[in-house]
Amino acid sequence: MADFGLDSLIEIGASSVVLWELSGAGERRQKIALRLIGAAFITLAAYLLVQTTIALLTQHRPDGSVGGIIWTGITAVCMFILATFKTRTGRALDNLVLRTEGHVTMIDGLLACAVLLGVLLNTVLDWWWADSAATLVIVYYAIREAIDIFRPDPE
């Protein structure tokens, strides 16, 4: 179901926003960067929702090779490590943009886990819908993150 296409491009775009934000200074720059990352969360949620809907309607059955399963597992581990380092570095630098972008990377790790779960549950229990169900949880998480970004600060 969830292939590593547009979602990876969204992650790269969000990381590019962090690089742009770190190359300058100012509250306005930070607000723009956070809004761009919020837009990345919304784009990712929409993409995943469309992909999941198509997978459910067509009853797509994930098919995984041993090499693909290993690669997806490595991807998940790498994304979780990268997300942890981004968040930790963002805290150390007191950089909200980097901390927030770490959540985008976390979603990529969760997507890899959803793919793994879907392939394994389809193989063992014929649960073709399992990765779609897991992906819907990730859609919720992405929407929640976007809402947190776009919610006005109480002043």
Provide a descriptive summary of the structure in words.
The protein has one domain. The chain contains five helices and no strands. The radius of gyration is 17 Å and the shape is elongated. The mean pLDDT is 87.
Could you tell me the mean pLDDT?
87
Shape: elongated
Largest sheet: none
* Class from helix and strand fractions: mainly alpha
| Spatial extent as radius of gyration | 17 Å
Number of domains: 1
| Helix percentage | over 70%
**How many beta strands in the DSSP annotation?**
0
Q: Strand fraction band?
A: under 5%
Low-confidence stretches: none
Work out the helix count.
5
Distance between the termini: 43 Å
- H/E series, N to C? HHHHH
Task: Give the arrangement of secondary structure elements.
Elements: H1 6-22, H2 27-57, H3 66-92, H4 96-125, H5 130-150
Helix pairs in contact: 1-2, 1-4, 2-4, 2-5, 3-4, 4-5
What would you say about this model in short?
This protein has five helices and no strands. It has 155 residues and is mainly α.
Descriptive terms for the model:
single chain; 155 residues; mainly alpha; 5 helices; elongated
